[in-house]
Amino acid sequence: MTAADRPPILITGGCGRIGLLLGPPSGRQLHFHTARPPTADLGLPCVQADIADLAAIRSHFTGQDTVVHLAADPRHTAPWASLLPNNIIGTYNVLQAAQEAGCRRVILASSLHAVLGYGPEVVVRGDMPPRPADLYGASKAWAEALGHVYAQRGLSVLCVRIG
User: Is 92 a catalytic residue?
Assistant: First the structure.
């Protein structure tokens, strides 16, 4: 399979801490969708847009196979005024745009914060419900629940708890 034959991947938040760690896999077609410009030339198409604005991001999902959704406010102390547009509305917009565009899969970046309310003595299993300890964790638990809704609508959604 040549690079041209590989399915394109859209990464939201590609210029953030985790997005930059991913690096471009050899031969993959990647498109970074970011709220801020990259600090260096990534050699990839980068688009700046606000994920809280569905109309601004919708067209960028056309032709994408997979979306890796990393864009969010990652601070566990983030105020609601930042979490609402970036983590709540932005996640809805990404899933909605992916479904409308016919993307095959969305990989959602969740967080260990979605289950920190269990306490350190509890071994959290995958079948246990989220139990966030703060608003950031609640925003990630909501993202997981929203991913389930879109999975029921036929979109392949994977949630990865990073941390």
Answer: no
